[in-house]
UniProtKB/TrEMBL annotation:
It comes from the Bacteria. SUPFAM superfamilies: UDP-Glycosyltransferase/glycogen phosphorylase. Keywords: Isomerase. This is UDP-N-acetylglucosamine 2-epimerase (non-hydrolyzing). Belongs to the UDP-N-acetylglucosamine 2-epimerase family. Pfam families: Epimerase_2. Residues 18-361 form the UDP-N-acetylglucosamine 2-epimerase domain. The gene is wecB. GO terms for molecular function: UDP-N-acetylglucosamine 2-epimerase activity. NCBIfam families: wecB (TIGR00236). It comes from Clostridium yunnanense.
């Protein structure tokens, strides 16, 4: 049983769901918590996934405690009905941790997709860092996207034979979403001159950036546009009022700044593909943009994805106004600096992660003895 609740999880679990469905040795069930409702549904529709169970837990102004409680109680009933041999959870959301805990209470095996990412600071990102660690303590199989992730797990005492380096499933997903002559559903994007303007795609919504962080990011964006007449910004503004109200108060109506709602997965991937670069505090975009040769400035002080920093595709810039402006201008005005980042090799996958995960599961249950060739 595959369990997920947010759009980022859904994007990365969708190709795995499809791979599970293809295998005659596996009965695949899907349970969504709908921790995020609208954005989750977009991905389900794109990949033609109809959940077997939908807990529909989302509430306005929901708290971490409330999400955890509703997932635990909802999954208890689902597990009683289905009695799965194993559940699969992804990454670092509250759904991930609560799903793993609910399975542990029923002594159901847990597979953790995108396991082993660490910042080694339990409050950054919050609550994601501890969600990952706690899920890792519960999991029976760990699907690490990179060697670095595997090494983190080994240092925490996880048995090596329970860890598989698979690459990241988001690269699998992008094989189905990016098109060379794509026309956007959001009409405003079709009028942007991607060929002659340096279009920067922005997302910033993480909890640790609420307040001063988001304010600083917006101030930096105003400076970048003012100083570079060939730049246009497309900011995909999170629906949470804590973020949205600040962004609109500082950026609405400004020339060459487009404030759009979050886009569905296909539009987002194609926007990355057409953009000059990406600025974000998101985790997933640090993997997706380099796959398409786009430099990423990460609006955080730490990242659980150090491989991209080491590979040169990503740079940590934090939320200091002066630093953001300086690093953005360096890429906008220096072809050599830009090319060095855009041509670096993405360390996150080859599009075969889902296949490796399915093979590892079959091996775990002694259905096959086939060796799993790691990424």
């Amino acid at each position: 049983m595959t369990i997920f609740g947010t759009r980022p999880e859904a994007i990365k679990m969708a190709p795995l769901v499809k791979e599970l469905e293809k295998n005659s040795n596996i009965v695949s069930k899907v349970c969504v918590t709908a921790q995020h409702r609208e954005m989750l549904d977009q991905v389900l529709e794109l990949f033609d996934i109809v959940p077997d169970y939908d807990l529909n837990i989302m509430k306005t102004k929901q708290t971490l405690t409330g999400i955890t409680n509703r997932v635990l109680e909802g999954l208890e009933e689902v597990f009683e009905a289905e009695k799965p041999d194993m559940i699969l959870v992804h990454g670092d959301t509250t759904t991930t941790f609560a799903g793993g805990l609910a399975a542990f209470y029923k002594q159901i095996k847990v597979g953790h997709v995108e396991a082993g990412l660490r910042t080694f600071d339990k409050y950054f990102p919050f609550p994601e860092e501890m969600n990952r660690k706690l899920t890792g303590a519960i999991a029976d199989l760990h699907f690490a996207p990179t060697k670095g992730s595997k090494n983190n797990l080994l240092r925490e005492g996880i048995t090596e034979e329970d860890i598989y380096i698979t690459g990241n499933t988001v690269i699998d997903a992008m094989k189905h979403t990016v098109e060379s002559n794509y026309v956007f559903e959001h009409e405003e994007l079709n009028y942007i001159d991607f060929d002659n303007k340096k279009v920067i795609m922005i997302t910033a919504h993480r909890r640790e950036n609420w307040g001063e962080g988001i304010e600083n990011i917006c101030d930096a964006l105003n400076h970048i546009v003012a100083e570079n007449k060939d730049v246009e910004l497309v900011y995909l503004v999170h629906l949470n009022p804590v973020v949205k109200d600040v962004v609109f108060s500082k950026l609405e109506g400004k020339e060459r700044i487009h404030l759009l709602p979050p886009l569905d997965t296909k539009q987002t991937h194609n926007l990355i593909n057409k953009s000059f670069m990406v600025m974000t505090d998101s985790g997933g975009l640090q993997e997706e943009a380099p796959h398409l040769g786009k430099p990423v400035l990460v609006l955080r002080d730490v990242t659980e994805r150090p491989e991209a920093v080491e590979a040169g595709t990503v740079k940590l810039v934090g939320t200091d106004v002066e630093t953001i402006v300086r690093e953005a201008n360096a890429l906008i005005n220096n072809d050599e600096a830009y090319n060095e980042m855009s041509r670096s090799i993405n360390p996150y996958g080859d599009g075969k992660a889902s296949q490796r995960i399915v093979k590892a599961i079959l091996k775990y249950f002694n259905v096959t003895s086939e060796k799993v060739e790691e990424f």
